[in-house]
Amino acid sequence: MIEAPSSLPALYDYLNKHCLQHPYSGQQLALYGVALTFRKVAERLEKSIFFTRRKKRERKHAQWEDFFCGFELYYNDFFHSAFVKKGDDYVPSHDPKDIHQDHISYLQQRLQTASHSLLLSRYAHLLYLKLADSKERLTYGSIALDNYLQLMEDLDREDLRLSQANDKKRRDLHRLYENGIINAMLLSMELREQQARAKNSFLEILRGEKCIEWIVLLQFMLQYKAQFSPSDFEGLQERCFQIGMEVMEPRDPQYSGVAIEYFEAGKELAAICGAAYPWDQVIESGKQYLEDILIIFEQIQEEVDKFRKK
Question: Which of 91, 224, 241, 310 is 20 to 30 Å from the Cα of 59, by its Cα?
Fold first, then answer.
């Protein structure tokens, strides 16, 4: 991986070409990998011997970029999984109330100067969610949608490159696929734009299993099944059963619990396509299997506790 530049103008140019080389996004689409590149620039500028007015401005903008990238944009909304202590209360580490007018003007400017789909989808989506009462809101939603869909194509190219290099960063790309296409689908429904393109991209990612948690995309599909045709669901029951059985195999309560989610999704699919498995019996057996594991774990823990008390 190329080393990210240490000045802000050079970093802008670098990220326009190499944004997906910093793909770590966490579970709810916060661009932590990209945020880190801006944070490092801000820290270097602060330590600069000649801290000029220009460098102060660049540091401020790098800190803003770090702030924007840290927002979790999940299911077409602000999501809060991280909290910080403020006085006697805990507040979100990234609160949309903290986006002020100077931030908005800067985001609008960056929409004109940035060129990578990951950055453009981020800037436009922030503006769309923040400016709920603005006449420009729909324009920003359209820009966000278009760039999320372009991002899926950019991810395909980067995923192919990493697969050929057997690079472990593919996992981070797959998280971007997962959350990016959900945002795109919801925006397309809300705006009534590019719905066929968004659906086709979604199905390609789902069937290609270009995601960390396939069940997340499947549950989304079932939640919004009116957006899909019955033929779109064909073959998914079989995969639910296969994955469910695979994740039960380690005899770990965490994985076995996820297996039940797959079996229950299979049962929902059966209501759409016709049952390919006896789902009620499969679910009941899976729950019994999980209960047996938990009993064994509790028995082991009791034996350990008794031993330590001797």
Answer: 91
The DSSP annotation for 154-181 comes to HHHHHHHHHHHTT-TTHHHHHHHHHHHH
**Reported pTM:** 0.90
How far is CA 295 from each of CA 221, 281, 298, rounded to the nearest angstrom? 35, 21, 5
- Alpha-helical runs (H) found in the chain: 8-18, 32-46, 53-69, 101-113, 117-130, 137-164, 170-191, 195-208, 214-223, 236-248, 253-273, 279-309
pLDDT digits (tens, 9 = 90+) for 195-223: 999 999 999 999 999 998 999 999 999 99
- CA–CA distance, 175 with 170 (Å, rounded to integer): 9
- Tokens at 229, concatenated: 């045709």
> Vertex 254, ends 252 and 258: CA angle to 5°?
115
The single-letter code of the amino acid at 87 is G
**Cβ pair 40, 6 in contact under 8 A:** yes
For residue 238, what are the contacts with CB-CB under 8 A and spacing of at least 6?
276
